[in-house]
Amino acid sequence: MAAAKDDVDKRLRREIASLKATQAPVIYFDTVGTGGAYSGIANLTLECGQHLLVDGEVVNGRQTVAQLRFPVASLGALKAVIAHIESSLQSRQQVPQPQEAKS
Prior knowledge:
Blueprint (H helix, E strand, L loop, with lengths): L1 H22 L7 E8 L2 E14 L2 E15 L3 H19 L10
Antiparallel strand pairs: 1-2, 2-3
């Protein structure tokens, strides 16, 4: 009986986590326009490229999509996540690709 309750608890926690994840905004950005820190708060301005039609001509520009604000103490965690992503990308690039069949 306890095992069944544990399974239900695990499923419930998974469902709650999924619901919480859908409540957070998804932010797409191309570049970090500026960044800095003041009074213990770091900030990053995230931007994306945009192409607008102005008087019949395409004008290329950038638009701010988000401004991140976080304690400077969180920089270590942010660096660690970025390092992990970079490491996983490098390991994927080193995986041998299957050879195409020669005819």
